[in-house]
Specification:
alpha/beta; 181 residues; six-stranded parallel sheet; 6 helices; globular
């Protein structure tokens, strides 16, 4: 049952994150959308009027620790708690494996893996005492690799390992952690 759930979606300004913001709000959830792209504001506003639930937007760089902590605190305050984190924010530049430079690897890891760590850690205190759900977006490329997205594949492999690890560690708190590939 999604109605009345308090859900935080990252990457809500485009792609699957945008679709989730709209779908959850239509289904009666109370949704917070986070993204670095200010287009997320219009998407959350539209989602607010499309269904039974509600939605709002907060601009946030998911790879910035201070911004993540502040945004999660604001989301929890505005929603009156938190039931679900859906971490969908990611970047996937196409670059031949032999042409990837360190700066690109660092950016992809920051947005895809480090942000997963930061967001998961930031919501943990709010889920620890009452349980909840964490859904981290991974990719099949994290298992099988990708010649023109080796950096992306590596970051998503790390997301899969992170999700398995926190599922084992945080299950005792009633927190279920899964990844979608």
């Amino acid at each position: 049952m999604i109605a009345d759930k308090k859900i935080l979606v990252t990457g809500g300004a485009s792609g699957m994150g945008m679709t989730l913001v709209r779908g959850y709000a239509r289904s009666g959830a109370r949704v917070a959308s986070l993204d670095i792209d200010p287009a997320g504001e219009a998407i959350a506003t539209a989602a607010q009027g499309e269904g039974l639930g509600s939605a709002f937007f907060i601009a946030c760089d998911v790879s910035d620790e201070a911004a993540v902590q502040a945004a999660v605190a604001q989301v929890v305050e505005r929603l009156g708690g938190l039931d679900v984190l859906v971490h969908a924010a990611a970047v996937a530049p196409v670059t031949a494996a032999e042409s990837i430079d360190l700066a690109l690897v660092e950016r992809v890891m920051a947005v895809n893996m480090t942000s997963t760590f930061l967001r998961n850690r930031a919501v943990f205190p709010y889920l620890k005492d009452r349980g909840g759900k964490i859904i981290n977006f991974a990719s099949s490329m994290g298992v099988v690799g990708a010649p023109n997205k080796a950096h992306y594949a590596a970051s998503k492999g790390a997301v899969i390992a992170r999700t398995r690890s926190i599922a084992a560690a945080w299950g005792r708190y009633g927190i279920t952690c899964n990844s979608i590939a």
